[in-house]
Amino acid sequence: MTIQLYGFWRSNAAFRVKVALALKKLPYEEIEVDILAGHQFDAGYAEVNAERVVPTLVHDGHRVFQSLAIMEYLDEIYPTPRLMPESAKDRAYARAVALVSVADSHPFVTPRVRKHLAQAYDADIAAIEAWCAHWGREGLATYERMLTERPATPFALGSAPTLADICIAGQKIIADLYKVDVSAYPRVAELTKRCFDMPEFAEAHPMRQPGFRAVSL
């Protein structure tokens, strides 16, 4: 078995996959694609990933991209420990939780969106950071409501972290990056603290990556 992960220290989507790999104790080789420098648009990487985004997982020569698809793929080929629950109802809930960040919040703060705001609308750094903070709060507020309706016990779907917890933790990273006060979302704060107390989450955090550097946006 060989696993390669095209990613970047700053990538929230790559963070999700790194946590999944760590929970399953799967070793992998990481190949850096500097998305802040625009290297995802290099011709060579376009041959790896048609959407020209990170992450891309390569498993025994088979390429998978989009973090949610990667995590579900890993769960199907390496089912222990499970990232998706057993029952259809719980799997649907886990996907719904995941998609709040994956589809509804995180996409608004990606490099290509920030670049478009600057180029098409002359948005300055302060305006872009305010935009990103807004979408960070939107995701946290939704998660707070979901965790109020269905409290974590101790994780979103029971005794062990799942794909849902991984995505909530990723939303917390976005919030921290754009200086959103998570104390306004106590259930999210409690759950994500529980997650980041685990080495699998903590060691995947962008600020713990070898390439980490302090950058604006």
Structure characterization notes:
By secondary structure, the chain is α+β, with helices and mostly antiparallel strands. The protein is 50% helix and 8% strand. It is built from nine helices and four strands. The chain has helices at 12-23, 43-46, 67-77, 88-102, 111-121, 125-149, 163-177, 186-196, 199-202; strands at residues 3-7, 29-32, 56-59, 62-65. A four-stranded mixed beta sheet has the order 2-1-3-4, covered by helices on one side. A hairpin with a 2-residue loop joins strand 3 and strand 4 (62-65). It starts with a strand and ends in a 15-residue tail after the last helix. The mean pLDDT is 95. GO terms for molecular function: isomerase activity. Residues 87-214 form the GST C-terminal domain. Pfam families: GST_N (PF02798). This is Maleylacetoacetate isomerase. Belongs to the GST superfamily. Zeta family.
The shape is: globular
Structural class: alpha+beta
Strand fraction equals 5-15%
End-to-end Cα distance: 37 Å
Strand arrangement in the largest pleated sheet: 2-1-3-4
Spell out the key features of this protein.
217 residues; 9 helices; alpha+beta; 50% helix; 4 strands; single chain; isomerase activity; globular
